[in-house]
Amino acid sequence: MKAIILDLTDESESNEVALSTSVSFKRFIDFVKECAQIETSTRRVYLESAVERMTVEPGFYNIKTIQEASAFEPLLKIIYDLLTPSLQPGENIVWAIGIPLSPVLFYGTDRLYNIVMDPITGERRTELMYVQVKSLYEQNQLLTVYSLILERLYNISSPNYKPLVVCIKETDIPRYYSINFDNRFTDVYPVSELPDINPDKIQDLLTGNGDIVELLELLPIDLFHFEGISIISLTEVTIEYTLEHIKNAHLENSDTNKNAFLRRITESLRILIADRKIDFGLIPQLLVNNRFTSNSKYAFQSQIISAGLPEDQVADIYLLLATRFTKSPQPMFIDEMKTDDRLIGLMNTLKNSGLQSFVLVPVYAGNQIVGLIEVFSFVDIILDENTLSKIRPANQLISRIFQNLIHEFNLRIDSVIKEKFTSVQQAVQWKFQEAAWHFLRDSYSKQLPATEKIVFKNVYPLYGAVDIRNSTIARNTALSQDLQLQFELLIGLLSQFSQHLGLLLANEMSFKCKNILNQINDVSEQLDEMKTLEFLEAEALPFLQHFYEDLSNDKSTYSYRGTKKYKKEGMELKRSIEQYFDSIDPEKGVVFSKRRALERSMQMINFSVNEALDKFKIQIQPLYPAYFEKFRTDGVEYDIYIGQSIDPDKKFHHAYLKNLMLWQLMAMASIARVTYELIPNMEIPLQTTQLIFVNPNTIDISFRDDERRFDVEGAYNIRYQVIKKRIDKVHVKETGERLAQPGKIVLVYFQNKSIDEYLDYITFLQAQNIFLDDLEFLELEELQGVSGLKAIRVGVNLDLPEMTSEEATRKSIK
Question: Which of 37, 173, 434, 559 is deepest in the core (most CB within 10 A)?
Fold first, then answer.
């Protein structure tokens, strides 16, 4: 045992919040007395003897400082004997006595001092490991202090907090220890009257919902004095800490520095294996069209990939290894490779590079292999099962990392497709998959990458649009209502400026606000929205921010003119400005309430429409693949393309197109019912219209590099696109009525022949009670560059319960 004063973290003096503490053994002695009273065995005599020795020794009962305590080593040894297991070898116990709630100790076991102090220089060799940043360490310590205060003085229990962790470098491989505090023998005394608290508020702050500064204000730490001792013990947590380090590295992984991230992982594996002479390589299983592809961005320090073998050969080797590990999950040592002729070349290449030891360890997610860990050394060292077992605790985390790297790689492939092509669905993915890989491969090899033109010829187009009726009017109404409230609040606030500060400029700004408010209220006058918002953002807001900052300043001219009256007025004005700022918060402020309500109502519609269309997209794929693309407007538009060129391997038949046309009608009827049923739940009731454009002829589509989506090819086909853009607001000839109406399906067409099949489907769906018996044939007004348009319009039975997809399929087949 040793009596040496030592700060385990060297952070005690630098903490911004200092605790009032003193050393005392009173609570400990009382604790031993209580134990002696309830003890019935012969141990009672031992406990009573210990109490007598600690109480009769002059001065021990009234010790206040650690310097005084260090003079009573025999009595400190009694405390050690009472609190540690008698049968545990003393050289293995890492134990000490310290200042209350502090990592400063003054008496402890030889084992503890040998761990934390350099045996030659006597210097402390512990380094505190912050969870994230130093402020979080201080916060965690304060929460521990408050837990003791609340438990002892308010009878409020609180959660346990993470212990401090220190790093000790006895060798070139660091080891980690947690510092555990036993505060049973620490008393807490209020230095003045104990303040009243709100238990719910305090509990909320203790669980991390708030700022620690708020806790310090509600219950200042300098109101309390801490007296007693803390019992300190160290527990090695190298494995746990290293695994936590890997987990944190995984969560913080940034694509900008993949090399640094993977180095942190391999460095952590070195700590687990506790040998600097051993290193690691990581190879996630990256597949393109089910074939392994090597990539230095995602593989780290791989000796196989860096061996200089051709890419195709590396892919073949990986496939061979993956097949072997699927059958047998045991690691493969380098000398085992000579049993397979296909691996002998790899073995010789690795040995020629200077490797003395090399092992491949498979990593799995369930039964699926997700990558390999290479364990290797350029020094003649024994790598065996015992050595490899040390990294086994990290296998699950490495598996997650590999899965994320694989997912990230696949996203990069998809990202290239979306950036260079379009949002790709399974129906046409075959066309894009290899093109994306070729682009990535060329970019990695520093060649000038080129994108391949994607064209689908002679496809049948089906277009539909679900529009929110009068959405522009609803937006303007919501904006006007919000702006009206905002200007009323602003005028009221500016009147306080004039009243409290005598600021003439506030009167002039209030005059402008009233003029704008009159424009808002005058429905006959067109509001200049841009000019209004510019006034609020560029003139009113900076004006208020300036005076708010000035009023927040201790030397504010307006808050402290020397009288209590001015101070009070300044505080009232500051609170009024704060309330105005709260009101203009786009997320929660009252002056955005109408716009938020409208947005929520529109989101309800768009979510339901998108969900219905997504189901529609899935339902139409099994018979014959079709490309389905949605576009977000105020509502949702979509294009469907089907034809032989979409899937050259499967013969196309016109029946697939007819089935799709019928499905489209049923899906639009379903959407009309779904959006109608949403109306009672909307804050601002909105209705939808449903429109289909019928084009009986095939068109060619190609990927447009400038718009990153499919578009039509050729002059004739462009006409189809122009018509789609212009028919959404078309009117009925002679009556001038808008064609698209809520609760109805509209089909726009040119030639009567092109609508014949749809008429059969409508008759069928009327028989199923999906459509009403109110079919209309309409002539449409001419549009710019488009004439001869016609339409049919039919009502949807909005009271019909939704069919399941199985029921709809059966009816469609019949």
Answer: 559
